Amino acid sequence: MIKRSLRWLGRAGSVVRRIIGAPDYDHYLAHMRARHPDLEPLSRERFMAAQLQARFERPGARCC
Fold first, then answer.
1. What is the DSSP string of 1-53?
2. d(CA 46, CA 28)
């Protein structure tokens, strides 16, 4: 019961992060392991910095 609740909360948190546009480092790591096993993934700090930079470099990508 507790395991299922924790799993559900993790999934709900992931959905909320996607909705608000927050980068999901764990999802990124899983993607890198599955699709690009030969490449070294970015550190959490570099990943967050790259996501932040990409978010503000795209004109028109924000509502305000």
1. -HHHHHHHHHHHHHHHHHHHT---HHHHHHHHHHH-TTSPPPPHHHHHHHHHH
2. 12
**Domain map of the chain by residue range?**
23-58
Assigned token pair, 17: 């992060």
**CA–CA distance, 54 with 22 (Å, rounded to integer):** 12
pTM over 0.85: no
Q: At what angle do helices 25-35 and 44-57 cross, to 10 degrees?
A: 100
Contact 41, 28 (CB under 8 A): yes
pLDDT digits (tens, 9 = 90+) for 5-62: 888 988 888 788 777 767 788 889 999 999 999 999 999 999 989 988 887 777 665 5
